[in-house]
């Protein structure tokens, strides 16, 4: 470790050598500097383009329609794209949920729940269950048992106006 009060002479010599190296280096040539080469190439291309066609002010050039060069025309044979569009979404998974009923609890009531507790729901026995797709009510149905597994038989498809009324429950 060096003493800050006594500068090291070798360190001064190193600095001097580095400074002389830096001053001895010239600016890099175009061969070494890819930016300079690219700028020179661009300037040459711009000057060649100006010689071929005189520049006009941008405001005097009329707007050209994109036409068929950008947008491909619609084919008449496609008529309705509905079947093709539906094929694109057929493999998208959705979450189906059957809701037995709902209730509201206070935190105190929630903390008092234990194994064997019974929670009363707002729905009545025998009342149709709500069928939700991704959280949206779309139908109602009744519970069925098929080979020891629960299922749901759809009894009614909910219309959009009925969906709004059901949201107020």
What is the CATH topology classification name of the domain at 128-168? Surface presentation of antigens (SPOA)
Report the portion of residues in β strands.
15-25%
Principal-axes shape call: elongated
The top-level CATH class of the domain at 128-168 is Mainly Beta
Mean pLDDT across every amino acid position: 76
Rg over CA atoms: 39 Å
Percent of residues in helices comes to 25-40%
Order of helices and strands: HHHHEHEEEH
CATH superfamily of the domain at 128-168: SpoA-like
Distance N terminus to C terminus? 80 Å
The low-confidence runs, each spanning 5 or more residues with pLDDT under 50, are none
Q: Order of strands across the biggest sheet?
A: 1-2-3-4
Return the structural class.
alpha+beta
Largest sheet: 4 strands, antiparallel
Short summary of the structure?
The chain is of the alpha+beta class and 169 residues long. The chain has helices at residues 9-24, 34-52, 67-70, 82-89, 107-112, 160-167; strands spanning 96-99, 129-133, 136-146, 149-157.
Q: Would you mind describing this structure in some detail?
A:
This protein has six helices and four strands; from the N terminus they run H-H-H-H-E-H-E-E-E-H. By secondary structure, the chain is α+β, with helices and mostly antiparallel strands. It has a domain at 128-168: Roll (Surface presentation of antigens (SPOA)), CATH 2.30.330. The protein has a four-stranded antiparallel beta sheet, with no helix packed on it. The termini are far apart.
């Amino acid at each position: 470790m060096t003493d800050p009060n006594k500068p090291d002479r070798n360190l001064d010599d190193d600095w001097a050598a580095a400074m002389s190296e830096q001053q001895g280096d010239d600016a890099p040539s175009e061969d070494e500097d890819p930016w300079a080469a690219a700028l020179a190439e661009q300037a040459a291309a711009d000057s060649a383009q100006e010689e071929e066609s005189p520049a006009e002010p941008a405001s005097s050039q009329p707007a050209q329609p994109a036409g068929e060069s950008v947008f491909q025309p619609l084919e008449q044979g496609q008529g309705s794209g509905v079947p093709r569009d539906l094929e694109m979404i057929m493999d998208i998974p959705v979450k189906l949920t059957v809701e037995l009923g709902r209730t509201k609890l206070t935190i105190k009531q929630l903390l008092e729940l234990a194994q064997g507790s019974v929670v009363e729901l707002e729905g009545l026995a025998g009342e149709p269950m709500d069928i939700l797709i991704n959280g949206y009510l779309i139908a109602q149905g009744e519970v069925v048992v098929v080979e020891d597994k629960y299922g749901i038989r759809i009894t009614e498809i909910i219309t959009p106006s009925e969906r709004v009324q059901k949201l107020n429950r």
